[in-house]
Amino acid sequence: MSKFVDFMENKLSAPMARLSEQRHLLAVRDGVISALPFIIVGSFFLIFAFPPLPQDWSITQWATAHAAEILIPYRMTMFIMSLYIAFGIGYNLAKSYKVDPLSGAQIAVAALLLTLTPTALDELGFVLPMQYLGGHGLFVTIIVSILAVEIFRVCKQKRITIKLPEQVPSSVSRSFEALIPVAIVIILMSTITVVMGVNLHHVVDKLVAPLVTAGDSLFGVLVPVFLITFFWSFGIHGVSVVGSIARPLWEVYLVNNSQAVADGASTIPHIAPETFYQWFIWIGGSGATLGLVIAMLLFARSKYIKNLGRATIVPSLFNINEPVIFGAPIVLNPLLIIPFIITPIVTAIIAYFATSIGLVSPTYIMPPWTLPAPIGAYLSTGGDWRAVVLVLINITISVTIYMPFLKLYDKKMIAMEQGEE
After folding, report:
1. Between 381 and which of 280, 386, 387, 402 could a Cys-Cys bridge form, CB atoms 3.0 to 4.6 Å apart?
2. Backbone angles phi, psi at 119, to 5 degrees
3. Entry pTM
């Protein structure tokens, strides 16, 4: 065990930490996170349009009759999330390069919009195909946003810009500095989309189709669950490492699910958006540590573990578990690492099969992640009471798995406390 811990600390920890701080991954992560307020608020209008109430209630009938109007805020926020994310990626990547972040954000948005081909409608004029501005176009959004900012950076570093005298206001000067990079991006994207007739979204769809299919399988769920808890066990922020890579795929699943509901489809296509992990697996935080905290309150006899349980129960109810991970500690603690990895794997398997066979509705709404799990699961499934039952079952299972390991650790802590006394 000591050799393994030494390998993790000296050989794997540093590369993984560097990967989690890689500027492009950070820009993608921060760009997606910057759009979360729009995704969360927009998704709630799906609940308003399709309230989880009996169909014969007057409010349900009113919502059904006015669903198109109610969904307008959803279509202007979550439905075109790629537009907001492109701005966020461009801003954060440009900022990391210490070039004008606003110009970087605007160039990224322009690059995304130029992947679309306007369609002429007699009564409306030219319109953009909005389906590519949602999660469906997220992979293209990431690629062209990074490309646009890299062009901007190279032009800035190579001084391929228009430099105005120092007397000119800085805002005007920055605008002219971005003139040549903007021209290059617009000409490049127009050449690809208009002159060559290449639909980047179709091309990327074909390339990532195997990844989309694999990520929604049981194996595709268990791999990130294992990796996130494995990295956390050694003090590496697993969500930052794995989530930076997987989150765009999870966002595609969520948007596809919400769109299916908005369109009145009979089935919801995906099992495993990020909300699936949040409400059915990470109950209390990574590692499903709410079960550990409950076990501390119920079974611990050492003073330290008892006090830790009392101190962390409220944060854990709201899915904040760093106090448990570093306070128990779970990090580099062989007795607690085992259930920390096993518990979410077991709950993931149960939740996956419960969703796949129709016992629980798939998630398609993103409530704030700090809600208690039963409430978040209920809202994320559009008001499916069975989701609450599944959460309670998984909490019970997590307590059961953590309990024997906690008792062993508790005995060790009791012996240490008695020795100190």
Report:
1. 387
2. -115, 135
3. 0.77
